[in-house]
Amino acid sequence: MDLLQKVKEIIVEELGVEENEVILEASFIEDLGADSLDTVELIMKFEEEFDIDIADEDAENLTTVGKAIEYLKTKIS
Amino acid sequence: MSHLKDKVAIITGAARGIGFSIAELFAKAEATVIILDISTELINAAVEKLESVSSTTICGFSADVTDEDRIGEIFKQIIQQYGKIDILINNAGITKDGLLMKMKISDWDAVLNVNLKGTFICTQKVSRLMLKQRHGVIINMASIIGIMGNAGQANYAASKGGIIAFTKSAAKEFASRNVRVNAIAPGFIKTDMTAALSDEIMAKYSDLIPMKRMGNPEDVANLCLFLASDSASYITGQTITIDGGMYM
After folding, report:
1. d(CA B35, CA B43)
2. Of B13, B96, B179, B225, which cross-links B91 as Cys (Cβ 3.0–4.6 Å)?
3. Which of B82, B156, B234, B247 is flagged as catalytic?
4. What is the pLDDT of residues A17-65, one digit of tens each?
5. What is the DSSP letter of B200?
6. Residues of A carrying an active site annotation
7. Which candidate, B238, B222, B199, places its Cα nearest to that of B4?
8. What confidence tens digit (pLDDT) does each residue in B53-64 have?
9. Burial, A30: exposed, middle or buried (Cβ in 10 Å; 0-12, 13-18, 19+)?
């Protein structure tokens, strides 16, 4: 499964949103209705699924779907 | 009495004292009771006793609440076996009394580690799961000493005062996910911990208790049962004293 699809699935599952809402420009908080707890849970889920560590400073910048995917690409490859 | 039927409850420091009384009452209330304590021997004895008063599922794990990895492992195992954790009682606690001028750093650290850091570790490990479940109850054992202070117990008082403040922060963080966090602040309760106090100190404190007697572990267990049950579903972030009127 490609990274984009996997990340989308995680977001759909964690935030309880529809897949068609998860576009690259979507902001987790403003567009996908996440609150601060949701964003922490989402980051922890990424760490678990991709077996990586995401530093708090990095996590702060992952505000949109696109930014998260770009970041995960660099971390995983 | 089946207030806690089908609930899974973890109680730390439950092999004796107040923790054991809570475990016993929860077992009678038909909860699945998981006791954590440091001594395997005491745990085995406690599990055996509990099995004689209730037919509910009882199990025990030996663990140090300050051992983050071990606590994580145990909680994972509990989830695998029982599918959920509904209630966590952070009860494990120790004392290392001494006047503050002469208090060893090691005695300060030991008490802060078990009482306060242990509460933090167990709460953190269970929180992700409870937040996901969209329900859960956490009850932290504070103490009247955490409110009033006590000569010779600066470390214990700091740890218990810390637990009260920690409880409020955790309650605020978790409230939106229907996870309630409360603290209980017992006064003088008849346990091994208070049996270690001198007669002189006990006499002095008895004078300060309007009800003129010490409490029983069962009194604390009853409060715990209420807070853990759905009867308390709108109570969070509170510290409830249970002390015969000593602190008002």
Report:
1. 7
2. B13
3. B156
4. 999 999 999 999 999 999 999 999 999 999 999 999 999 999 999 999 9
5. H
6. 35
7. B222
8. 999 999 999 999
9. exposed
Gap between the Cα atoms of B35 and B41, Å rounded: 13
Do residues B179 and B228 lie in contact, with contact meaning Cβ atoms separated by under 8 Å? no
Domains of chain B: 8-242 (3.40.50.720)
Distance CA A60, CA A74 (A): 16
**Dist CA A25 CA B172 (whole Å):** 31
- CA separation for the pair B156, B118 (Å, rounded): 13
The closest alpha carbon to B188, from B157, B166, B212, belongs to B212
Res B201: pLDDT: 78
- Using alpha carbons, select from B43, B34, B118 the residue that is nearest to residue B83: B34
In contact, B145 and B157? CB cutoff 8 Å: yes
Yes or no, beta carbons of B176 and A41 under 8 Å apart:
no
Separation CA B141–CA B167 (nearest Å): 10
- The label of the residue with tokens 């909860």 reads B31
Residue B17 CA to residue B233 CA, distance in Å, equals 27
The tokens for A62 are 């992952």
Q: Which 8-state DSSP code applies to residue A77?
A: -
